[in-house]
Amino acid sequence: MKVKTILVSQPEPSNEKSPYSRLEEKYKLNINFRPFIHVEGMNAKEVRQQKIDFNNFQNIILTSRNAVDHFFRLCKEMRFAVPDSTKYFCQSEAVAFYLQKYVVYRKRKIYVGEKKIEDLEAVFKKFNKETFLFPTSDMLKPDVPEFLNKSTLNWQRAILYKTVVSDLSDLRDVYYDILVFFSPSGIESLFKNFPDFEQKKTRIAVYGNSTIEASEAAGLRIDIKAPTPETPSMTMAIEKYIEKNLNK
Does the reported pTM lie above 0.90? Predict the structure, then answer.
């Protein structure tokens, strides 16, 4: 079956030369973007109910830009002045770079991993007698907590924001050849918005093992999977599928 329309369950890329733009132009596609989930911040009262006091922590572990935004938003809301001595442990260079939105980089102690929080294991050991705050969403994969426990750090999780299903009611009567998902939350949003969804001829593209598992548990037929050795990105996986079905 040929492909003409695709809905990607993420925000539209800011880069005009994104792989999706190239795909759209090459195959004359109509690719739309729509987040199936969004983030909402917790308020100060909800944070205090978790028995979190920012004064008690010397170090902050940051694994996403959302974590950065909501930590500093709540600091402002709770009138907490972050001490200059606070150390920041950033999972990646992208997170550390984003931190500059809130702190003067050269005046702060910032430790940066290459891609994973485990990259900072040696640095964590130097400060394992100190206290660490880990700002997160309400949804958290177990790998980081497991690593922090294994490292015997004195750390505490603070749920500062939550993932919420977006309202997609305006899409009820809109058909797309391919729906693209990147998280189990996206699959959950699909069925919360459209409990009577029937896949029929709609192709489902999924990225990552957890998304595959969620799709299968929901009874969806998966037509496109990524990453694979042949197609490490979603756009490559979609292109391979399109090429395979060009003349069908």
Answer: no
